[in-house]
């Protein structure tokens, strides 16, 4: 995910101790036993049991827990996390997913920042605009903040219930010393695709090793080939580059993003 505007999201579980502390602060009697069990078992199995139990809350018990959560949030609305809970409650009233920000890392990417959303890891878009590059996926399972069906047992069986340290969430771009200034390669930790951003390029020579997609971030982008064919796209548009293209030239006075392999 590459942020085009400030982009707020959730990505991966918080540290076990942080989840315990946040739920203990709520002091919700009906969750006391679940929280105590997690506090006594701060490991993958303990979090998996807690995650499944929370998502399985239904009926009046779920309603009482959500009401208690929002009462706490209203009493502490100057806190950024509580303010987020109240904002989400307006969009998803009564949803058990309102507890998600207490279990998952919340962060706001600034324009030009990026993060990787790993498979088997809970994540959610909250607000903002970003450029998302997806690998092939055959399964999307929901964990709340949605009116759609949640298959909790299947979700839990496909989820790695391990913390994702907050300071590892952002992908720091790498500059290749062999290339000119203005080229940033993001270290994607899987072989499915690569992602790079180019700034102020005049006839930058690029060569395909696979099919590619170029996206004009903030200015027009012109792509030209030696056979005489060329195309210019505007800000917010994208162009598909076939795998058999070979070398082509890209020109832009702004930024463009490249998804390729």
TrEMBL record:
CDD domains: cupin_PMI_type_I_N
Cofactor dependency: Zn(2+)
Reaction(s) catalysed by this chain's protein: D-mannose 6-phosphate = D-fructose 6-phosphate
One example of a Gene Ontology biological process annotation: GDP-mannose biosynthetic process
GO MF entries: mannose-6-phosphate isomerase activity; zinc ion binding
Enzyme class: isomerase
Keywords: Isomerase
Domain of life: Bacteria
UniProt-listed Enzyme Commission number(s): 5.3.1.8
Residues covered by the Mannose-6-phosphate isomerase cupin domain: 185-261
GO CC field: cytosol
Residue stretches making up the Phosphomannose isomerase type I helical insertion domain: 31-104
Family statement: Belongs to the mannose-6-phosphate isomerase type 1 family.
Protein name: mannose-6-phosphate isomerase
């Amino acid at each position: 995910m590459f942020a085009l505007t400030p982009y707020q999201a959730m990505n991966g579980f918080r540290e076990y101790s942080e989840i315990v502390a946040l739920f203990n602060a709520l002091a919700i009697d009906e969750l006391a036993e679940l929280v105590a069990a997690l506090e006594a078992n701060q490991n993958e199995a303990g979090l998996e049991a807690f995650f499944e139990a929370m998502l399985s809350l239904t009926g009046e018990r779920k309603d009482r827990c959500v009401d208690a959560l929002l009462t706490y949030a209203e009493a502490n609305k100057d806190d950024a996390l509580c303010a987020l809970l109240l904002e989400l409650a307006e969009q998803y009233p009564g949803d058990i997913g309102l507890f998600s920000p207490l279990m998952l890392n919340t962060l706001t990417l600034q324009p030009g920042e990026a993060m990787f959303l790993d498979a088997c890891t809970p994540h959610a878009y909250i607000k903002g605009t970003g450029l998302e590059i997806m690998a092939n996926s055959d399964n999307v399972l929901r964990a709340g903040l949605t009116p759609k069906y949640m298959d909790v047992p299947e979700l839990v069986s496909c989820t790695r219930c391990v913390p994702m340290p907050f300071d590892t969430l952002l992908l720091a771009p790498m500059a290749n010393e062999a290339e000119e200034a203005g080229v940033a390669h993001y270290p994607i930790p899987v072989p499915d695709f690569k992602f790079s951003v180019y700034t102020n390029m005049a006839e930058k020579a690029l060569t395909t090793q696979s099919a590619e997609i170029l996206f004009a971030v903030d200015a027009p982008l012109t792509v030209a080939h030696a056979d005489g064919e060329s195309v210019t796209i505007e800000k917010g548009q994208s162009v598909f580059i076939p795998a058999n293209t070979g070398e082509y030239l890209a020109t832009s006075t702004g930024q463009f993003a490249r998804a390729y392999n």
